[in-house]
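Escalated from tier 1: zinc ion holo job.
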Amino acid sequence: MAEYIRAAVLVEPGKLEIQEFPKPSLEEGALLVKMTMSGICGTDKHGYKGEAVQYAGTPREIRGPYPAVPGHENVGIIVEARHPRDGKITDFYGKELKEGDRIIISPDILCGKCYWCRHTYGYTWCDNIRSYGHLDASVAPHLFGGWSDLMYVFPGSHIYKITEDVSDQIAVLAEPMAVSYSLDIAKGHSSMPNEGFSSGDTVVVFGVGPLGLCHVIKSRLIGAGHIVAIDKSEYRLNFVKEFGATHTLNVDQTSIEERKQFIFDLTDGRGADVVIECAGVPVVMVEAIDMLRQGGTFVEVGHFVDTGEIQLNPHRHLCAKNIRLIGQMNLAYTGMIPSVNLMMANREKYDFDKIVTHKFHFTDALEGLFQSMKPESMKVVIHP
Ligand SMILES: [Zn+2]
Ligand SMILES: [Zn+2]
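Tier 2 regenerated the structure:
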């Protein structure tokens, strides 16, 4: 008798249900992974709300798709591997993979053949990108996301074997932490006089949910001075104080003018060196740029889906202050294990496991989604 595997399926916006699929048989080079943890990400919340346009205006623009098994921040144990006849399945660093190994799976499967794959090593700029958690679940073998018992991993996926001492909580943060590579780019710009992100700089982070928190942590660990966190949630503002934020501003208790004044007072009237937008609210960009110093760096990382337009004044916002702008979608697949290493090296100082505040079984994924939308949560995960 065929064995069936249950999974949470986002059937259409606003409709998440549990479905059963036949246990997949593996093509050569594929893996079957027993999930140990799968994150609930901002894009999952947007997908549930029907805000599902990604890579808008590029050849790889996608909508949805629905139905899909969500879950792209995935950690699990290999239960089945179909090695190719001419070799073994290896991880990103060439380590041989076998049943029983615990792995992190990068969300994206890239073609390796398009212009972007061949010119931009390390980044997920592929024209033919396919992403776990966003693949059509009506197509066999269906289990292309982590909100399930088992996940099907295609040949050619980026897989990272992890050691026993790495907790699932740290492993599941590898993906959002790898998104913060924009700060490594900003660091690189600091080789130019008074540009980019230099040691001791004042960094402002708008929106300190899990992604904003990762940017606070990264800013702290790569050498920020003041870090100012801005959010509506007092819970989240208190949370980030434990992970390196030196100041917090509650949006509901301050005006735009007061926040701007606070940043200018903190920086001897110059403005912030780096401002990072993780709130996913388009209009925040205007406020963010207004509090930037001359030659400052603005990092836009909060809009992985299309949420609309804003009005900018090219002279006032861009030219007059000579600002540098880093827009970013997705992550550096070369940044996954470095992110784990960075957290492991600092785990005596910061309790990263604590960042996972809520765990839900995949059959309660809807409850998990709602929890992740509440201000009193940090990283919410699916934990079979
Ligand atoms: Zn994510
Ligand atoms: Zn490609």
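The longest strand covers residues 4-12.
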